[in-house]
Amino acid sequence: MSELLIYQSKGEGELFIQQSAQQLTNRPKPEGDKVTVTLDEKETFQEIDGFGASFTDSAAYLIHQVLDMEQQAEVMTRLFDPSEGIGISVLRNPMGASDYARSIYSYNDRPDGEIDPELKHFSIAHDEEDIIPLLHKARKLNPEVKLFASPWSAPAWMKTSGSMKTGELKKEYYPAFAEYFARYIQAYREKGLDIYAVTPQNEPLYEPSHYPSMKMLAEAQAEFVRDYLKPAFVSHGLHTKILCYDHNWDRPDYPTTVLEQAMEQVDGVAWHWYGGKPSAQSEVFEKFPNKEVHFTEGSGGEWIPPFEQAFSNVMRTGIEILRNHSKSFILWNMALDEQNGPTVPGFGNSTCRGIVQVNQQTRELVYTLDYYALAHFSKIIRPGALRIASESSEEAIRSVAFVNKDASRAVVLFNDSEQEAAVSLKLQGAEIIAFPMPAKSALSIRIPAGH
């Protein structure tokens, strides 16, 4: 029993604390029926790519420029190192500026009235200052890190608005925008960084006017991917995956339309959590079982202010995201400052929360609840893990389970009730461990092979 690797979170100040099996089981057991969580290795689902967040311009600047070298080494180790840290293994970065950037920029900005359809002025120089150095450090700490990328907007000259804010992609620039993606992937490859997957547009149904955005309806996205983006990848010999949609659970009709119209050119669907329910992932997956499911953005923030509710939200939702076929679970900003920024000029009040907080005034470094919630997944569920069936005799005890490539089993549990529960974890009919779970507590257990 001592071989089990166990981490428990019971509330603020008691986050992701390593426990021995004896420490866990020696506590007084609550009265009442025991809740049984049963694992079934015969029933398998998706393979995991990983867990992570985003090196937005803001996050990369804070870690690379505001922190001193010792702090930077500490935070990168605690984020990416699988042994000394939590082993983050997926990064989803904006292609150009997002809402969390110090300025509005693309990789092909031109003066007003000037166009560049041949992309003669294309450059990723902006990313060479902070983002690319941190990506190399992340990869050195964890060679399994995969890179995803998404634009918040095409360059302004390609759009109906003539601005990085609002507007749609002009039809005559579909070829240029497809080439823009290819150039980005090639430029990163020249820096020793492979882009694993892209989406054509971040949140294509949301068109805010206070930060970079671009409306792209489902039919337009299907045409762009089918007739321009995928052909550009083929012509350049690029094998980067294309994921459609990249928006909320409340519009499963959007990825359904894209997949119906561009089936062969799309590898999967990317989802966000700001509307709808995780079951939308399964709804689309059941129609298109050969297409991958990815969760590419979810931010915590002040709209769920009390600590317990906010931590519970990440745990509960993360488990449900994985139970609904997702190969990844990616939160939003890797780092934000004490004002939840920096944000683009004119953005207004930011309420998002980073994985870590970097205070620009004091240089204090704080690991937020999102760091510890993400740790419950990323520390024990490693890239390449295969999800197996897990069923609880009580709905309030949420669970998700995997078999890692080293044959260890990884189980994440969350007690979503207001009462302590006595839990028994069973595998192939035999009890592995029995323990009490306080209300709203999380538990991650790694069971070694052969146990």
TrEMBL record:
Pfam families: Glyco_hydro_30, Glyco_hydro_30C
GO terms, molecular function: glucosylceramidase activity
Protein's recorded name: Glycosyl hydrolase
Annotated source species: Paenibacillus yonginensis
Family the UniProt entry places it in: Belongs to the glycosyl hydrolase 30 family.
Record-linked InterPro entries: GH (IPR017853), GH30_C (IPR033452), Glyco_hydro_30 (IPR001139), Glyco_hydro_30_TIM-barrel (IPR033453), Glyco_hydro_b (IPR013780)
Limits of the Glycosyl hydrolase family 30 beta sandwich domain: 384-443
Keyword terms, alphabetized: Glycosidase, Hydrolase, Signal
Gene3D superfamilies recorded: Glycosidases, Golgi alpha-mannosidase II
Gene Ontology CC annotation, any one: membrane
GO biological process, one term: glucosylceramide catabolic process
Domain Glycosyl hydrolase family 30 TIM-barrel: start-end pairs: 48-381
